[in-house]
Amino acid sequence: FRTGGQLGAQVLQRVTDESKQERAQADELLQNIPDRFIELGKSEMLARRLCHVQLKELHHMKESGLLTSSEAGQIERQVLEASRQIADAPKETWLSHGAGAALFPGGVEPGDARRPM
After folding, report:
1. Which DSSP string corresponds to 32-68?
2. Apex CA 96: angle with CA 94 and CA 102, to 5°?
3. Quick check: 117 and 54 in contact, CB under 8 A?
């Protein structure tokens, strides 16, 4: 947007300074969060992202004629249910299972050859 001369420069400088200060506060806060909670957040974001990717692939397969509407609907319900379970799972569940362990019924344990869809 366009601002007028000196006043615009002052406003821009103030916004920049406040932004830097808030960023420093956020960095400090993140330094005090235990690593296991950072890992938890990243794991949950990855799990949600994988569900989103699966839905995109599912819609592509349906549009390409590889899946019928019925088949796509059934798989979509499973993916959406997994997304709900991810969102609703108590954080203690995530933390107690460790990396790679199956959290949900029908999940895949480490070393299991099955691939969930």
Report:
1. TS-HHHHHHHHHHHHHHHHHHHHHHHHHHHHHTTSS-
2. 60
3. yes
Residue 87 makes CB contacts below 8 A (sequence gap 6+) with 48
Q: pLDDT of 55-96, one tens digit each? A: 999 999 999 999 999 999 999 999 999 999 988 888 777 777
Q: What's the CA gap between 36 and 42, in Å, rounded?
A: 10
Q: How many other C-beta atoms are found inside a 10 Å radius of the C-beta of residue 86?
A: 19
Residue 100 or 98, more confident: 98
| pLDDT of res. 47 | 93
Which distant-in-sequence residues (6+ apart) come within 8 Å of 58 by Cβ? 67, 72, 75, 76, 79
Q: What share of the chain is helix, strand, coil (3-state, %, to 5)?
A: 70, 0, 30
Q: What is the mean pLDDT of residues 22-39?
A: 90
- With CA atoms as reference, report the closest residue to 79 among 59, 102, 109: 59
pLDDT-based confidence at 98, cuts 50/70/90? low
